[in-house]
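User: quick one
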Amino acid sequence: MTTETLSAPLVVEFPFTRSLGPVQSAFLTGLRERTVLGVRATDGTVLVPPVEYDPATAEELRELVQVAETGTVTTWAWNPHPTGKHPLDRPFAWVLVRLDGADSSLLHVLDVPSAEAVSTGTRVRIRWAAERTGAITDIACFEPYDGAPGDAPRDHSGDFADAVTLVTLPARLDYTYSPGRAQTAHLRALGERRIVGERCPECRKVYVPPRGACPTCGVPTGERVEVGPKGTVTTYCVVNIKAKGLDIEVPYVYAHIALDGAGLALHGRLAGIPYDQVRMGMRVEPVWKEGQRWPDHYRPTGEPDADYDTYKELV
Amino acid sequence: MSKEPVAVVGIGQTRHVAARKDVSIAGLVREAALRALEDAQLTWADIDAVVIGKAPDFFEGVMMPELYLADALGAVGKPMLRVHTAGSVGGSTALVAANLIAARVHGTVLTLAFEKQSESNAMWGLSLPVPFQQPLLAGAGGFFAPHVRAYIRRTGAPDTIGSLVAYKDRRNALKNPYAHLHEHDLTLEKVQASPMLWDPVRYSETCPSSDGACAMVLTGRAGADRAPHPPAWVHGGAMRSEPTLFAGKDAVSPRAGRDCAADVYRQAGITDPRREIDVVEMYVPFSWYEPMWLENLGFAEEGGGWKLTESGVTELDGDLPVNPSGGVLSTNPIGASGMLRFAEAALQVRGQAGEHQVAGARRALGHAYGGGSQFFAMWLVGAEPPAT
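Assistant: Done. Structure below.
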């Protein structure tokens, strides 16, 4: 028997939305219109990118200022190995750029062939993306520039037609998930259609699925115990809402099932009986399906219902 | 050396709605914070530290949002802490802030909690596709409904109790201008006829999904002396945790909840909560949790919670009003929901609850729970300073 623990990729992703509020809305809409906006802080300095509240005094900031497309690199780092998520597909410099007319620096990338072509003080200007949507990527990148500085800063209302007020930000996290030693053994036994838990050496309760330790006694659990396959429905609900991404037809019965010999109930789907005839105390057994690791669902055994007193401690 | 008495001198909240598209997260928390400062007649400069809470990061996809909220909350140059305890976080956050005052670490602390559910997905955040596990669960309602059924079986409660709670809380919300749901046309019959989502839990017996924030200014005795309005005094506060699932867990009346309440009553010198506490604001996301928590918190003996509800004791004009604000059933920005309970308790003993004021409220309990009934946070506030 192999002792190697299981592992599998776990991808967590979701397209989150974000309301921008007045300042970020003006900033991102401005980029779409090839207009870079900063905000005037309480002390008169111009912050680009703009912020809603003063970093020193916490006062609300709303005076927008248009700054130039040209600027100066204040610091940088060379990236020799771009990945697919980076703005450029060739080696580039990460740069902080203080745009002419601004007093703070904007993080972006500089398109130069080698690290020798960038230094603190390098003059640069914006290279606009051909298609702009109201995102920081509307600035495709910065490029070296040896011309005159751009226009002097001037006040801006921040008003644009068809302003961007909400952005969608896809988030994705890539994990490798391992259920660990105890659950791996449980899952391998399921492959043989046996339900195996672990007994706590102190309280003698059997945990199914096992966790490798008893959460009450705080000690490792090693003794493997086969439970079930029959069990008792301790409680349940009838689910009438179809959850996104969950491939189960509604209504279905979501039940807590105390398998015979187990110290607590596990959760499973109940079928093979009309949902309005399900009862607490009903005796059930697993129904296996070819190619599926866990019991597909549980069904009534036909035995008489268990007396409430026999399972009430497990509810 | 005794602890510094803790006073609530400022309370602020947003008008809770389904979606606040007009503000960023920073703008949302700012609104609640400014209202709390205004109530206390203080400025950012008077605040020594900021303690913030929200629901788990997955809900909104912003990792550690507190790191970008420092300027919006005037926290630059000050300590800023984030508290994480799932749905109870608003309560735990207030207690962490209160403890900083009690321990004399800080003189005046701004504490706040928020959620923008319109820009998050709680059901998704709670149902991640974990490998090797059978995907079964359809959100929080599916998780809690079996426990409601177990409560009904254990106590023999009539199946209409949940609808009574929902109808009461939604009517209370009509008196609270900050509440999300204002269902003027709701009737008990409509609640009882609403679709069964997770049998035995109906649509009208579940909480909405809200955008909102809540903030409080906490201070010590000296700060309370300078406060423009009567403070609420903290007489007791406690948190308890336990696993979501373990052999012997009582999901209907979790031990962590009972122990947490007992600790708070001991601190506050309460021996008969039913008689000595004037109003309760508890975390009831599904209506049946009112009778369940009434028992768990010691207001009724086991099996007696539903009788208090049924006999009208928990109505706004009852002997022990529960959730005068309209509760979680009427307003649920998850991360803020616990703090809204704590804030409502404080508003009641300050006499500032407006139309949903319980006459003569001198002592109020604020309660929050979170996760799979695994985190509990409570405080008891009073109109008078604590005896010590």
